[in-house]
Predict the structure.
Amino acid sequence: MIVLWLLCLAGFSLLSLAMPRYRRLFGLRHLSSRAERTWRLSAFALLLLSLLLVLQRQQLAEDLVAWFGILTMAALLVASALAYRQRR
């Protein structure tokens, strides 16, 4: 479960950092449109990988519910970090 959470957290972090607004917020350099697309695809690949790990198990219904919960917690953590950084 920790691996799933870390994959989701990394995926949502990459998704947010693929946006110019949040890159400026953290003082990161400008990316080309190709690099932004690569970051987005990498983020979706991490989220898809986490889903594939869930689908490997036998208890599909419970694991999908847990996966959606993990997605929610990871998204909330990233959103909270972005909101905190904007206020600083």
In short: The two ends are 32 Å apart (CA to CA). Residues 55 and 61 are 10 Å apart (CA to CA). DSSP finds four helices and no strands in the chain. The chain has a mean pLDDT of 90.
